[in-house]
Structures are given as structure tokens and as C-alpha cells.
Amino acid sequence: MAQGKYINIYTLSSVDNPNEIKYVGVTKYKVSYRLSSHIYEAKKKPDMTPKTKWINEIGFKLVHNVIDVVEECDAGFWEKYWIGQMEAWGFNLVNSNKGGGGLSKRDEKFSMWLSKRNMGNKYNLGRTHSKETKMKMSQAKIGKESPRKGCTVSDETKNKMSQAKIGKRGNATGFKHTYETRSNKMKPVVQMDSNSSVIKVWGSMSNAANELGLDNGKITLVCQGKRQTTGGFKWEYCG
Questions:
Q1: In terms of Cα–Cα distance, which of 82, 84, 37, 28 is closest to 62?
Q2: What per-residue confidence (pLDDT) applies to 236?
């Protein structure tokens, strides 16, 4: 989860009906903490807002899903965007407004309650959306321009993100593709002489490069038409 200058935009649904999104919110904390805040608020003031009424109706059984992570300065804009998008997709939200009101702050009473409540708890309050809901959201985006298109990250932000990762284990560390996956990713290439006569069909660029002592990247450039030859040979993708 993002913290500090990065903000989580999340949805809330009930445990019994996780595919029906009912609320869109933003937080700079872990979403599980914000989830506890919603439950705390609903217990203390059950009739305060449509959201607190809904949480009481479903017996405080909430699940969340992070749908976007944005910079804090843009959080209001993206909160409005996602509320509008969910409503356009047909979800009946219980948000009290259209968003953009800023980040809520914890009061001391809630912080004490949250600390006591989570003592010894190791369960995960969050769940991901089902494949059905993900497919519904995916289908709704077909033909629409991404709202993040054209958005850039400043050099300062890139540097901070890079520094934050130093010494941390990457998500893909130690991960290896299966032979089947590697095979599916391989593109056969044709090795030809200067007269375009076929010399050999290789199972992949890597195989050709390793056997002939060539640069894999240069074979790619030839296949893409950005270079004439490499190693004295012409190259083309097979098929």
C-alpha cells in the first residue's frame, strides 16, 4: 500500500455481495486501517450518513479493494473520477458527495480504539474482486481512453520511488517462468545470407545469439527493420 505522498483509492463492498461496489474512498494509510475507521464510525453513529446506515445493515462485514494509487496532490481529482466512473458503470454508491473533499484525519479516540482492536489480530480484512467483477470493469473500459494517459511522474518523484526500493526484495525475486511459458514467449527467427537465402530457422533469438556468439538485441533490431544485418546475416521473424 502507498503511504506518505502516495494515496490509495479504494472501494468497499459487503462480504455477502463483494461484486456490488457501494463506496469509493481515499486514504494515505493502509486501507485495512481505514476499513476499521469506517466500522468504528458506523458503530458510534449508525444513522449519520448513507454509508454508516449501509455498514450497519450488512452487519459491519466489509471488504475492500485498491483500484488506484495516485500522488497526494491529485487525490481529489481521481476520487471524483472514480466515483463518477463507478456510478456510470451502474453501481449504486453510498458516498455522501462526489468526492474531492480531501483526506480525513484520525482523532485520538479512534487511534486508541484501533490500536486496542488490532492487538493480536493477524487476519486480513481485505479481499480482491472476483473474476466476474474484474471482467465487468474491464469490458466497461473497452474503447475508452485511459484517464492516466499523458500523466507523467516528475524526476523528483521517480528518484524518491527509486530510493525507497533500495535494499528491498523485489516482488519477482526468485520467480521463474515455467518451460511452457518460456516456450510461448519465444519467437522463431530465420537466419539468411546476404542474398536472402535461408541458412537456418532458429527456435528463438536467444538460441541463435548463444550459438553464434551474437548480440540478441541486434538480431531484434534487424527483425524490426531498424538494422540491415548483424554477424554478417539477415534476420526475420519466422511466420
A1: 37
A2: 92
Our CA angle for 28, 31, 33, nearest 5°, is 95
Distance in angstroms (rounded) separating the CA atoms of residues 201 and 239: 11
CA atoms within 13 A on the CB side of 168: 9
Dihedral angle of Cα 229, 231, 233, 238, to the nearest 10 degrees: -90
Q: Considering the entire predicted model, what is its pTM?
A: 0.43
Q: Which residues of the chain have pLDDT under 70?
A: 1-4, 100-111, 113-128, 146-151, 169-177, 179-185, 239
Looking at residue 204, its pLDDT comes to: 87
**Which three-class secondary structure state does DSSP give residue 60?**
coil
User: Within this chain, do residues 95 and 23 fall inside the same structural domain, yes or no?
Assistant: yes
Give yes or no: residues 187 and 152 share one domain: no
162 part of a folded domain: no
Q: Residue 120 corresponds to which amino acid?
A: G
pLDDT at 163: 82
Considering the domain architecture, whether residues 200 and 153 belong to the same structural domain is answered as no
Distance CA 126, CA 20 (A): 15
Burial class (CB in 10 A: 0-12, 13-18, 19+), 6: middle
What pLDDT does residue 121 have?
A: 58
Residue range of the domain that includes 213: 183-237
Asked whether residue 188 is domain-assigned, the answer is: yes
